[in-house]
Amino acid sequence: MADETKPGRSPGRAQKLRFQGLANILTRTALSTPGVSKGIGKYLILLYVVGRKSGKEFAVPIAYTEHDGKVLIGTQFGWIRNLRTGQDLQVRYKGKLRTAEVELVEDKDRVIELYGLLCRRNHNFAGFHNIAIDSAGEPDAEGLREAYKHGAKAILLTPKREATPSAA
Questions:
Q1: What is the CATH class of 20-159?
Q2: Which of 36, 46, 50, 114 keeps 20 to 30 A from 75, CA to CA?
Q3: Packing angle of the helix pair 141-149, 108-121 (nearest 10 deg)
Q4: For residue 81, what are the contacts with CB-CB under 8 A and spacing of at least 6?
Q5: In order along the chain (168 residues), what is the average pLDDT of each group of 10 residues?
Q6: Strand runs (DSSP E) across 35-128, as ranges?
Q7: pTM to 2 decimals?
Q8: What is the pLDDT of residue 70?
Q9: What does the pLDDT look like over 28-62, one tens digit per residue?
Q10: Partner residues linked to 50 by β-bridges
Q11: What backbone phi and psi angles, to 5 degrees, belong to 164?
């Protein structure tokens, strides 16, 4: 990615694709397909978020990176209001359906730190959030601060071990 932001969109502002709904359907299908999910699952996780008011389940595909034994994701989109620290969340992680414990990070300095980590490890994430990356691979500090102003939050997920069948 170049070291400049995309014109017409403020730094730190996440983009919504014109065909986001279609892109999400295709991504959800790929993440749920054995074999295919192993490849795409190295970069994307599928969250099964339940609406607080509606009770409706939404399958949300999102980029992630691993950090300190946890799965780190970041977003500015409204579905995050349905997550709470300590809550269990169903996820499809590396092709397997699992339960993960949620840690919602809202502290400004910590969100900026974690968003910086996401941008360094995934330049597509930086581009999606219109955060410039310099020639050394470092995200623009102002872009990170702007992302926070636009509502960015980080989520750390701790996948729980899969249940193993007990010996009979």
A1: mainly beta
A2: 36
A3: 120
A4: 52
A5: 53 61 65 63 84 90 93 94 95 90 97 97 91 95 96 96 53
A6: 44-50, 57-63, 65-67, 70-75, 88-93, 96-105
A7: 0.79
A8: 97
A9: 666 666 665 566 666 788 899 999 889 999 888 88
A10: 57
A11: -105, 140
